[in-house]
Amino acid sequence: MIIPRSIGTILASLAAALLLSTLACLLPDNPYQRFQLVDGTLFEPLRRGYERIHFDPAPIDVAIIGPSKTLLGLSAPGIEHTLNQAGQTAHVANFSVPASGRNVEWLMLHEAYKTKSPRVIVVGVYDSPSFYGHPSFRFVAPARDLAIQPAPLLHNYFKDLAYLPARQVLLTFARVAPGLTGLRDHFDPATYANTRADFTTGSFVMEGKTINMALTVPAAVLAGQTVVEQKATLLERLTRRFVNRGDEAVYMDQIVREADAHHSRILFVFMPVYNRKGELADRAWLMAHGTLLDNADISDHAEYFENWEHLNHTGATILSDRVAKALAKLLSEPAKS
Amino acid sequence: MLNFTSPLFFVALALVACGLYILPGRWRAAYLLVLSYGFYAMVSVRFLALMVAGSLLAYGIGIGIANARSDSARVRLMLLGVGGLLGGIVVFKIGGAWHGWLLPLGLSYYSFKLISYVIEVYWDEDSVERDLTLFLSYPAFFPQIISGPIQRSEPYFQQVRALAARRLDSAQIEEGFRLIVTGLMLKLLVGDRLATLIAGVDAAPDSFGRIDLVVTIAGYTLQLYADFAGYTNIALGIGKMLGIDGPPNFNAPFLATNIQEMWRRWHMSLTTWLTDYLFIPLTMTMRRYGLAGLLLCITINMALIGVWHGFTLNYLIFGLMHAVYFSLTMLYLRYISPPRGKKAPPEPRLRRIARTAFGMVLTFALMSSTQIFFHSARFDQAIGILRQVFGLIPSGARSIGDIGPGAAETFVICALITVWAGCGAPGARRLSDRIAPVAPRWLQYGVGLFLLATLTPDSAGSFVYGQF
Lengths: 337, 468
Hints:
The complex is a heterodimer.
Chain A: H1 5-25, H2 31-36, H3 45-54, E1 62-65, H4 68-73, H5 76-85, E2 92-94, H6 102-115, E3 120-125, H7 137-140, H8 143-147, H9 157-176, H10 178-181, H11 189-194, E4 203-206, E5 209-212, H12 219-225, H13 234-243, H14 246-261, E6 265-270, H15 283-289, E7 291-293, E8 305-307, E9 310-311, H16 313-332
Chain B: H1 7-22, H2 28-41, H3 45-67, H4 71-99, H5 107-123, H6 132-140, H7 153-163, H8 170-202, H9 210-241, H10 259-265, H11 268-285, H12 290-309, H13 313-336, H14 349-375, H15 379-389, H16 407-422, H17 428-435, H18 441-455
Helix pairs in contact in B: 2-6, 3-4, 3-5, 3-6, 4-5, 8-9, 8-16, 8-18, 9-14, 9-16, 11-12, 12-13, 13-14
């Protein structure tokens, strides 16, 4: 078949663009600048997490990973304090980030092991896991981890990959002219010190919404906020069943493997939502890979919630105490072989 | 809806273009109609019905005029058609401006196409189109539906008829592809970046310094050009891929040395439409009133250009400002031109260059001053900006550079690229030819696509003229 010249030109230009994009993916970047790409967004705690790992000399004995439920529901200083009262000194870092997606949680854990040696990993679990990757993964993950993922056809794979050339071009430019991109190439202790580390107390703005952790919300208001989980469509169920098990399952495997490789123990903490006694889908799997702390009883108490799916300061204090007690036991056990 | 900037749209375009050339010739007009209606139905089936109704009205009126036995019947039918179609625009524009109605996509564009058809048939009965499928595809032709250009009926009908016997034209396909790539680059890489920076100033104009505000006002014109000229290139490129050449909308407008010339180079399909169907007939009617009649015609014409965008005070002021500038320019040109029969003395080269440069800058400044009203959503906003520019209210201390890292540099780069493009991109073709031995066309396009893939801002999307 003879391809008309113009069609050949168009196909060749598409191939050239693809080749250039592939080459752009190979451009080196400064990981610190990569983590600054989420500055000013909901995912800013990731940048602070990176600084905690790479620039803060304090060790990390306990690393917490999870979504906004664990960010607002577990207080690292509170847990440290309770452990101290119990006679144990441990440095706790909360690497949680709003929105669901285990891939970025695995990434933070992977990053943490580069400079620190957490002995226990606290993983927030919930009754409605996300089958999708985290929206911030494409900003902060190394190019290799975006291009080569642990399972084929993860739900956000192509979307994440499509952003990679643009990101690498921006990061390359940022290496040359950091001032023009607003991405610092050096650590700024002042910025680090001024970034909020504990979200279980006070009030702050998230996604334009002011969150007051001291707030107690009437049960009727919380009941009105409750979202009933939509039943998965047939297509969704088939996709999960046959294409892959979703990011949740794939990256939970990765998290467990990463922790095992570094001889860390895992504490799975069930994060309750108001008035929904959902059942953990993978309870047996979780118990086989770590200790499970069930907190379903909290879901009955309206006074512990800031909104239907996030604890308030009182709820966070109670949950942090429970986690501290469970950690005290795990930290006193001999290192995992 | 599939947006002209979405990669998915271009995948679909590639498929439908292939479909067009695979189909037997006699089906191609119907195919274009189905595609266009399908595209429009994705926005609104209800508004599609409105477009079909308007099209059938114009079709019927056209046949009625061609079959009419008396001049008075032809006049009545023409007035009915023009009135009905104009009425539709007026109702929706008033509803949109005063009651927040949703404006049917492309209403102004397809109505103007249909009005021009009705008038053309009235002027020349032979231009009537009796093939309903071919006729219906004319106002609906999807590459031109969002923001024009406003194509005349006869060139469209001729091209679609020729398409039936035509094989794939390699040069036309490649030219279409080039126009799409360059249009996307102008719109997404330049226009949308300028739009983001301008939005940064719009958020709190009173916090910016006067100079920065003046620069931003210049940015309004640049952003509008990058957006609209980018869109036009994309629309013309898509049309070319489907075998239809559309009329040009821009001809290096920033080279214009006066506002009259600027209007011959800016949104040409609208201005020529108004010139042919409004200005010339109006001036013929008002001839007996001399200069006063001419000035009145200019005012009516420009005011209509303004309110064509929307029935708001700001658009009317935009039009009237142009009327004043246009009239003053005309009077000045009359004043300086030599008496009839006498030649102007030769002008020294340096003086001519200086006069041309001054004219270009002044024209751009005048155009930008009207953009204050065009760009502002409300009258008081525009007045607030003017008061700040003229120092009647205190200005802030912020500069464009404070909007974000690299904002000032981005603004300067985008502004320079837009000015270059708006001057007809001098040297672009020569450079492309010169580097062709090293970087052939496909590689040049490939680099363009790569830049689009990597540098398109997240906020990229809608077209300014899509709202009209």
